[in-house]
Amino acid sequence: MDFTQIPILSILTFLPLVGGLALLLFPKANVGAIRAWTLVVALADFVLSLPLWFQFNPAEGGMQFTERVSWVPSIGISYLLGIDGISLFLVLLTTFLTVICVLSSWSIEKSVKEYMFFFLALETGMLGALVALDLFLFYVFWEAMLIPMYFLIGIWGGKDKIYAALKLFIYTMVGSVLMLVAILSLYFLNIKAGNAPTFDLLKLYQLPILPAVQFWLFAAFALAFAIKVPMWPLHTWLPDAHTQAPTAGSVILAGVLLKMGTYGYLRFAMPLFPNATQQLTPFMMVLACIGIVYGAWVAMVQTDVKKLVAYSSVSHLGYVMLGLFAMNPQGVEGGLYQSLNHGISTGALFLLVGVIYERRHTRAIADFGGLAKSMPNYAAVFSIITLSSIGLPGLNGFVGEFLIMVGSFLSSKPAAIVAAAGVIFGAAYMLWMYKRVFFGALDNDANKSLPDLTKLEWGYLLPMVFMAFWMGLHPGDFLRKMDASVALWLQSAETKRVACLALEKAPVAAVQAASVLGVASPEAPAALPTVEVPTPPEPTVGAPPGVLGTKPVK
């Protein structure tokens, strides 16, 4: 069946919401049916997302599976969806982790129907934000994600849940308002250039903007996405949200919601404003390096194992940002790959923390010790995920970190040195935590009779372990599908950057630059030669030759 002929992205996006609305018709007391229905909906969405993997054309760098319907034509709003090699895996990660989260929520007893509804509604918001190619539509989904997450933390969270939920809401809203101002500014700049009103991202990519104006627009987008990542020093909402959220909330927050920030940089801020990106790259790389070291050092002194994992996210997302702003194939693909790795490894760590919390109702590292004796299977799974998180060769974390360090070395050697030091710090705090929890004397009576992993826990942990090995041993399966999109992304950003520099230098060059970028200019003379835009050297995509066997895209 040719899935390019059906609105597969719309079905994937709205199926969870439709399933959630149907869930509201279930009797509140029928908890078993509510859980089963939610799992069926989540599984159906995951299965329907698999054709994206099999029918995605890795040789094509542009958007695929596109859907376009005019929505509000008078002001240029359209219902425009599509994916490329940058968004493909984040969509698959979202549908995969939602199934895992539903299974891990089987122990939820309070307001089960409402909990499951919010989770399915959250999946619709996340998927919509990943596939939307109209800025207005993207903003709607971006805001829609916040509401279910607010309630998941505020109702089913820990003792300080209201504080954590409000902090998340306020931080995100501040960034969102500034991003909305930037979106409207971009919209009116496009009209001023003599073009038809539109929020179409693919058309706005071609809009030449003065570098000085780009700076402010980039800053507005970048702040919104930096909060979501979160980058240091805008990270303070994250440890509270992770610590207070229910287990599944922490998994989806780490696995997908944080990636909305890194995805936002790749899809919006960096390609729309390439001159500002180049100008601010040193600053962003410094912030990324600070995040890597700061997150690791603070994680090292935590006494709560869940908060330790939360601060490790600050460090790991620093690697992702460092790779993206290296602005070369190795760095960008490494950043994308590390986004997926973080979703698997850190998501699995939060699941494992949830397992022990349900048995002991404590997350204090000092309350444990010697658990490998009473829970050997649990200790074995935890050890694999720990090694995955610190980047052991053969597991998923190694590939992403290696590519990021290669990319950052080509861009900034000091940044690569900091990244290498961060790997050492990451190994230190993770292995030290593992030692204190699982080894030593089993002298706490409360730990001596703890049951090992149940069948249900095996059911949602084994897929995570499988993904850690698959991504570590066969990275080419993933990187090949990114290659063409990343190459096109880099080349398009460079072409626009050169054209926008021409726009700044002279009025005639500005008209020529508009011609190159396909933007109509009312001041253009009848016959004006096109400016010669240097074509950047063809990038070697994926990894250095001989590392992963990837080839340049022709």
Q: What percentage of amino acids are in beta strands?
A: under 5%
Uncertain ranges: 508-554
Task: Characterize the main sheet.
Answer: 2 strands, antiparallel
| Total helical segments | 22
| Overall pLDDT confidence | 86
The spatial strand order of the largest sheet comes to 1-2
Give me the strand/helix succession.
HHEEHHHHHHHHHHHHHHHHHHHH
Topology:
Blueprint: H1 8-23, H2 31-55, E1 64-72, E2 77-83, H3 88-104, H4 112-131, H5 135-156, H6 161-192, H7 201-204, H8 211-228, H9 237-244, H10 247-257, H11 259-272, H12 274-300, H13 305-325, H14 329-360, H15 371-374, H16 376-389, H17 396-411, H18 413-438, H19 445-448, H20 455-473, H21 476-505, H22 507-516
Antiparallel strand pairs: 1-2
Task: Explain the overall architecture.
This protein is mainly alpha-helical. The chain contains 22 helices and 2 strands. Strands 1-2 form a two-stranded antiparallel sheet. α10 packs antiparallel against α14, α14 packs antiparallel against α20 and α14 crosses α21. The chain is globular, with a radius of gyration of 23 Å. The chain starts with 7 loop residues before the first helix and ends in a 38-residue tail after the last helix. The C terminus is likely disordered.
Concise description?
With 554 residues, this protein is mostly helical. It has helices at 8-23, 31-55, 88-104, 112-131, 135-156, 161-192, 201-204, 211-228, 237-244, 247-257, 259-272, 274-300, 305-325, 329-360, 371-374, 376-389, 396-411, 413-438, 445-448, 455-473, 476-505, 507-516; strands at residues 64-72, 77-83.
